[in-house]
Amino acid sequence: HWSKVVPFALARGDQFRPTRPPATLASSLLREDREFQEQAREIIQYTAGLTDEHKVIAEFWADGPDSSYPPGHWCLIADFVSTRDKMGLDDNIKLYFALGNAVFDAGIAAWDAKRAFDSVRPITAIRYLFRGVKIQSWGGPGLDNIEMLGEEWIPYQSLSFLTPGFPDFVSGHSTFSAAAAEVLRRFTRSDVFGMRVVVPKGTSRIEPGITPKTDVT
Q: How far is residue 115's CA from residue 101's CA, in Å, rounded to a whole number?
């Protein structure tokens, strides 16, 4: 029901609803939409060729259970910007007020689109489209690029983590991130960022002791 929350700065929750819907299965179920299939194949190709850097990026931005979630992640990034620029109390109040309300409205806009388009998530789409077809993909911790049937495909995440029970389009992570990044850019009047995160060897929560093979920045 988040799409029905009264926004802070938006006129209404559907103000920025995308005009172009996501690719879907064709109305005639005798054939699948070409764009939809291409997107599914692209995801399989990504998970078949994951590098340490890909895996580290995926884990850094996952923001699932036991985390600050995507909006909170951007508040932590704002902490870095505040410290970097030696902001005082007045500026911090203004920054977090703007940032907090931006991600608040971003969530409303994203969930309006999710409910309006009700699009399928990748794990459902791929298992449906490639059922009975042999594919190459990540097969679980330590199992890179193995052969499996399409209905066995899994995304790169903890095997105990359930795919969220809400539609795929639009991406909540991307919407939160775009809104927050724009606030930081306007507030500091600069695209300069400068934050660096070093992920030590073997500290992956998904593949502990295996990924990354060396420290990754």
A: 21
Half-sphere exposure of 81 (CA within 13 A, CB side): 24
- Closest Cα to residue 65, out of 141, 207, 162? 162
Alpha-carbon gap, residue 114 to 167, rounded angstroms: 5
149-176 pLDDT per residue, tens: 999 999 999 998 888 889 999 999 999 9
Contact call for residues 145 and 48 (beta carbons, < 8 A) = yes
Query: What is the mean pLDDT, run by run of 10 residues, along the chain of 217 residues?
Result: 94 94 69 81 96 96 88 96 97 98 97 95 94 97 96 94 90 96 97 95 97 97
Rounded-to-integer distance, Cα 96 and Cα 35, Å? 40
Rounded to whole angstroms, the Cα distance separating 137 from 152 reads: 10
First to last CA, the chain: 38
Q: Which CB contacts under 8 angstroms, 24+ apart, belong to 6-11?
A: 7/104, 7/105, 7/108, 7/109, 8/101, 8/104, 8/105, 9/101, 9/102, 9/105, 10/105, 10/108, 10/109
Which residue, among 204, 2, 212, 27, has the nearest Cα to 107 in the 3D structure?
Answer: 2
C-alpha 153/C-alpha 136 separation (Å) is: 9
Contact 2, 95 (CB under 8 A): no
